[in-house]
Write a structure and sequence with these properties.
The protein is α+β, with helices and mostly antiparallel strands. The chain has 12 helices and 18 strands.
């Protein structure tokens, strides 16, 4: 069960004895929180047993989905299961996972020594020379598994040239989507992973709070972005946020037009950071120097939608039902129908990547499970005037949902519940 007591017992995440852990899950005010000090110095990475548990779950899902193996190329999916970070190039590199054996690695021959520095000792590395086919090598590995004509699951983010190479040089294999393995593994976080995300989300909110103290008339978005980045760095992480001012806030992902801050402008900042690779994604909307009645009305509708979405989160609820709960509030406030002003889905999964499976959107009937993590980011965008978005990340618990990192917005002039 994902409870405060559970998190405090986690051995894989420790922080300095300054009282941070007790405050991280408590109800202390923002003024009592440490801000510009290193908050990740004592965070411990995942251990060997964590990766072993991931591999065991992958084997179970390979079997349940009637696959004989799974091939993952360099990228986030491979790193998730093996801790091996390898850039993608035109040379195929990756690992073949099976039901009983450790991963068997496929590597360009001239890269073997570098691969040996990263791959767990004892795991087999098969190499291919520049004139040879890595796809035939993969087919040979599957043959050794006793599955020469078997079903090979493929990395859902795999590039097309590898797929077509396998079709040509390992033609006896049935190639299937490996998302049935990768998505259930990455989509449901362990308590350790959630704790990393709790801390990452807390840090980004504290960074915004600190940067907002520097807001002044005439400043540029770049000025505010620099303040957000600097605050993240002082807390021990690389992070940032992209500000937009005034009418530019009506563009959900920002406008190319440059506008310096003027009186009565809305200000949106969207960004995040990572702790042990696990991401935060936070948006706050504030106003300079105070909101108009219309701005306040829109802000309050968006915040009510965010609260309604959180209340709709629970194990067994569908992803689309949470989107619908937020959208109803915004439509009832007069900003509908559908995507007219709330122009995007409610949220996305988040973890090792800022956007990942699963998604909170109409039509997604996937049922939520404890440990799933999402952004909760309703918005109203009125082109030519302003936009409002409030975004926090949340985790599904045994009995509902919880905002990661605390410091929820309380009012248009209290973006962190201060």
């Amino acid at each position: 069960m994902l409870t405060r007591r559970h998190f405090l017992k986690i051995g894989g995440l420790t922080v300095a004895a300054s009282g941070w852990v007790s405050r991280l899950f408590g109800n202390t005010s923002a003024e009592e929180m440490p801000s510009l000090q290193n908050l990740v110095a004592d965070v411990k990475p995942l251990a060997a047993e964590d990766y072993a548990a991931r591999l065991e779950k992958a084997r179970r899902l390979i079997a349940e989905n009637k696959m004989d193996g799974l091939f993952l190329e360099g990228g986030t999916n491979l790193a998730y299961f093996t801790k091996v970070n390898w850039w993608r190039s035109e040379r195929t590199f990756g690992a073949v996972f099976s039901l009983k054996r450790d991963p068997v690695w496929v590597c360009p021959a001239f890269e073997r020594q570098r691969a040996e520095e990263l791959i767990s000792q004892g795991q087999e590395i098969r190499t291919w020379e520049e004139h040879e086919s890595p796809y035939a090598l993969i087919g040979g590995i599957m043959k050794e598994f006793g599955a020469a004509g078997g079903r090979l699951g493929l990395d859902p983010s795999m590039r097309h040239f590898i797929y077509y190479g396998l079709r040509k040089d390992a033609a006896s294999l049935e190639l299937v989507d490996g998302a049935a393995v990768t998505e259930p593994c990455r989509g449901v976080k362990t308590a350790k992973e959630v704790a990393y995300m709790d801390l990452a989300n807390k840090i980004t909110k504290l960074a915004y709070r600190e940067a907002f103290k520097q807001i002044r008339e005439g400043m540029s978005p770049r000025d505010l972005a620099a303040a957000v980045s600097e605050a993240h760095q002082k807390m021990g992480v690389s992070g940032g946020g992209g500000p937009q001012f005034g009418p530019n806030t009506a563009f959900p992902h920002g406008s190319r037009a440059v506008r310096n801050l003027q009186k009565d402008d809305a200000i949106i900042v969207d960004g995040g950071c990572g702790v042990e690779g696990y991401r935060s994604d936070i948006t706050r909307t504030i106003f300079f120097d105070r909101p108009t009645d219309r701005q306040r009305r829109v802000w309050e509708a968006v915040r009510k939608a965010q609260v309604a979405a959180l209340k709709a989160v629970r194990p067994g609820a569908t992803c689309e039902s949470v989107d619908a709960a937020a959208r109803k509030v915004i439509e009832d406030a007069g900003f509908g129908p559908g995507y007219k002003y709330f122009a995007h889905r409610l949220g996305h999964g988040i973890g090792l990547e800022p956007h990942e499976y699963p998604y909170l959107v109409r039509g997604n009937t996937l049922k939520m499970e404890p440990g799933m993590t999402f952004s909760n980011e309703p918005g109203i965008y009125i082109y030519g005037e302003f936009g409002v978005r409030i975004e926090d990340c949340m985790v599904v618990t045994e009995d509902g949902g919880r905002i990661l990192g605390g410091l929820e917005a309380a009012a248009a002039d209290k973006p962190f519940g201060d």
